[in-house]
Write a structure and sequence with these properties.
By secondary structure, the chain is mainly α. It has a domain of 175 residues: MetI-like fold (Orthogonal Bundle), CATH 1.10.3720. It is 76% helix and 0% strand. It is built from twelve helices and no strands. Helix 1 crosses helix 12, helix 3 crosses helix 11 and helix 7 crosses helix 9. The chain is globular, with a radius of gyration of 23 Å. The protein starts with a helix and ends with a helix. The relative contact order is 0.14.
Length: 268
């Protein structure tokens, strides 16, 4: 009995960790598996037979391709802008002391803490009152996503800056490096993993968002909105194909970053 309890105590954490990962990754595995299904009807909910038809034709309709293209375009613009602005804000919050610093630090958490429904409704009222309901579309969605992603970028980059050793920058300055050289040769390479993580998180949040987008989209339809509308009348296997492509691309980017990080460490 004592040996059994000892074994359970030693392996309990590992077992719980495995179960948590299985719980998190099982839906992704199911999506990948169902992307190779050939459904009999309009809904790809039950397994029928193995087929590559969905992968040969990833777009079940032109509307799907257009909505996916719109989501990617918005995600790229929102990612670039929010990453640049968020990185600048993070440097200002960590490296400088000013009177409103604590208040701004608290305000940055509001978009993450507030319900997306409230934020979407507020932005809709703002856009309606300033530009009119007929102008809702690409740029209103993009602005809303930038505002939503900005806080996540600031928090991610701030955590990276807070964990950076400041003596490395002082050593570069002692070796007569200019501020620009210190930033480009020392600071930026050290902060780059945090910036890259913030950019990937921003892109994922933007492409995946439905609630805020539904309030600010007007007549435009992003990929999450297309899925929500299509599941009420049909659920083609191509939706699982696109989801699987996104999953595989994300895994490839993460694997590439790990390989580059290990290669950089080995060179040192």
């Amino acid at each position: 009995m004592t040996r059994t309890l000892t074994w359970i105590r030693e392996h309990l954490l590992a077992a719980v960790t495995v179960l948590v990962f299985v719980f998190m990754l099982a839906p992704n595995a199911i999506i990948l598996w169902m992307s190779f299904n050939k459904p009999v009807g309009r809904f790809n909910y039950t397994w029928e037979q193995f087929s590559l038809d969905a992968w040969k034709n990833p777009c079940a309709s032109n509307d799907m391709c257009q909505s996916l293209s719109l989501s990617v375009e918005i995600g790229l613009v929102a990612t670039v802008v929010s990453t640049i602005l968020g990185t600048m804000i993070a440097f200002a919050m960590v490296r400088h002391r000013f009177r409103a610093r604590s208040g701004i630090n608290g305000l940055l958490f509001l978009p993450m803490a507030a319900p997306e429904v409230v934020m979407g409704a507020t932005l809709t009222a703002l856009f309606f009152n300033t530009i009119g309901p007929g102008s809702l579309g690409f740029w209103t969605i993009t602005i809303a996503h930038i505002m939503f992603c900005l806080s996540y970028v600031v928090v991610t980059v701030k955590s990276r800056l807070a964990g950076m050793d400041p003596t490395l920058e002082r050593a570069a300055q002692d070796l007569y490096a200019t501020p620009t050289q210190t930033f480009m040769k020392v600071t930026l390479p050290l902060v780059a993993p945090g910036i890259a993580a913030a950019a990937l998180l921003s892109f994922a949040l933007s492409v995946d968002d439905y609630i805020i987008t539904a309030f600010t989209a007007g007549q435009r339809e992003t990929f999450p909105m297309y899925i929500w509308g299509s599941v009420q009348r049909a659920y083609p296997a191509q939706i699982d194909v696109i989801g699987s492509m996104m999953l595989l691309v994300t895994m490839a980017v993460i694997a590439l970053s790990q390989v580059l990080g290990r290669a950089r460490t080995a060179r040192r």
